[in-house]
Design brief:
The chain is about 50% helix and about 25% strand. It is of the alpha+beta class and about 190 residues long. Strands 3-4-5 form a three-stranded mixed beta sheet, with helices on one face. Strands 1-2 form a two-stranded antiparallel sheet. The longest helix is centred in the N-terminal third of the chain and has 25 residues, at about 5-25.
């Protein structure tokens, strides 16, 4: 949930708390009930009340959608874990760590200039997980696209199998850009 939605939820919670406090005050007869009812009748006859009620309704539906949604459109969430079965028990590996491994492996392939990855854990029936990997690459023009894509797929699948022990890994590759010139040797220090 983003900062704006958190702020909206804060204001919404404070408004509901104030409404609950108002109901408590009415139930305890701290204020004269007849005058309060007269003010409520007046407020219900105004068009502004309908407009505010519509906005609050839309606000409620929006916050409900935020609460129900998965929270991430990037394909991997911070709390998602990959569950691996070892000889002595289960191990949880964060999706961020698996994504980092995938990106480093893809960058090690000759001709790959930059990598963006989306990694998703898919739970299988035997209390373990598989990985779905989606890579967006920027590559150099010095080699064929299909050769680099095949090499990246194979390297990523092999390294995930070697390091994480995941036997099945679906790797999809998309080439977003072809660049010319020699790859940079590293960051320049000025």
């Amino acid at each position: 949930m983003g900062y704006i939605n958190r702020f909206l939820l804060l204001v919404y919670s404070l408004a509901i708390a104030a409404l609950a406090l108002g109901v408590i005050v009415l139930c305890l007869h701290v204020l004269p009930t007849n005058e309060i009812l007269n003010e409520i009748k007046y407020a219900l006859s105004r068009w502004e009340t309908i407009a505010v009620s519509g906005v609050v309704f839309l606000w409620s539906v929006h916050l409900l959608g935020c609460a129900i949604s998965s929270g991430s459109s990037e394909g991997s969430s911070r709390g998602e874990m990959l569950i691996l079965s070892g000889a002595t028990g289960k191990v949880s590996v964060s999706i961020a760590a698996a994504g980092s491994l995938v990106e480093k492996t893809a960058l090690a392939v000759s001709g790959v200039r930059s990598v963006k990855s989306k990694v998703r854990a898919v739970n299988t029936g035997d209390d373990s997980s598989e990985l779905d990997v989606y890579l967006t690459l920027t590559i150099g023009q010095e080699t064929m696209v299909t050769e680099i894509a095949d090499e990246v797929r194979q390297s990523v699948a092999d390294n995930i199998g070697k390091v994480l022990g995941v036997k099945t890994c679906k790797v999809e590759v998309e080439i977003s850009d072809l660049v010319s010139g020699a790859p940079s040797k590293g960051p320049r220090v000025v």
